[in-house]
């Protein structure tokens, strides 16, 4: 089992940048595929970005491609989400999630693929 704690959220102007971090505790972090999701008020939680346990395979939602970048440091048990060119529509609570990596290329993109979740961190982008 793994416990996840997000940090790095806050208020930023449109066009700005933020880096979210997710600290994981528990065994075998390096064997978990990781992901970031977000949920805006009144909307469903949606996939943002994911990467395989070895960090070599990634996937992004179309609406963040070219703006966001996901990475991990297995030595530090962390996964980051670098967010650039932020837009007001990126405003949401961002969640870190983990699931057992079934292969070195496995990137989970669906909410129900992830059994482990953090509490979320608020990102607000002002226009």
* Overall strand count: 11
Which parts are unreliable, with pLDDT below 50 for 5 consecutive residues or more? none
Q: Using only CA atoms, what is the Rg?
A: 13 Å
Q: Please report the number of helical segments.
A: 0
Shape: globular
Amino- and carboxy-terminal Cα gap? 40 Å
The proportion of residues forming helix, as a percent range, comes to under 10%
- Structural class by secondary-structure content: mainly beta
Mean pLDDT: 95
Strand % is over 45%
Largest sheet: 7 strands, mixed
Order of helices and strands: EEEEEEEEEEE
What would you say this structure looks like, in words?
With 127 residues, this protein is mostly beta strands. The chain contains no helices and eleven strands. The termini are far apart. Strands 2, 4, 5, 6, 9, 10 and 11 form a seven-stranded mixed sheet that branches. It has a four-stranded antiparallel sheet with strand order 1-3-8-7, with no helix packed on it. The model has no long low-confidence stretch (mean pLDDT 95). It is globular, with a radius of gyration of 13 Å. The relative contact order is 0.32. β7 (68-73) and β8 form a beta hairpin.
Summarize this structure briefly:
The chain has strands at 2-7, 10-13, 18-26, 32-39, 46-51, 58-60, 68-73, 78-83, 92-100, 116-117, 121-126. It has 127 residues and is mainly beta.
Topology, pairings included?
Elements: E1 2-7, E2 10-13, E3 18-26, E4 32-39, E5 46-51, E6 58-60, E7 68-73, E8 78-83, E9 92-100, E10 116-117, E11 121-126
Parallel strand pairs: 2-11
Antiparallel strand pairs: 1-3, 3-8, 4-5, 4-9, 5-6, 7-8, 9-10, 9-11
């Amino acid at each position: 089992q793994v416990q996840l704690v997000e940090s790095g959220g806050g208020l930023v102007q449109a066009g700005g940048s933020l880096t979210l971090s997710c600290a994981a505790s528990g065994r075998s972090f390096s064997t978990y595929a990781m992901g970031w999701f977000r949920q805006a008020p009144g909307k469903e939680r949606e996939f943002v970005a994911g990467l395989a346990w070895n960090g070599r395979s990634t996937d992004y939602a179309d609406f963040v491609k070219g703006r966001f970048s996901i990475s991990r440091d297995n030595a530090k048990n962390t996964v980051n989400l670098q967010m650039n060119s932020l837009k007001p529509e990126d405003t949401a609570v961002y969640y870190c999630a983990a699931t057992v990596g079934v292969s070195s290329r496995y990137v989970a993109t669906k909410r129900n693929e992830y059994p482990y979740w953090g509490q979320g961190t608020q990102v607000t982008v002002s226009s």
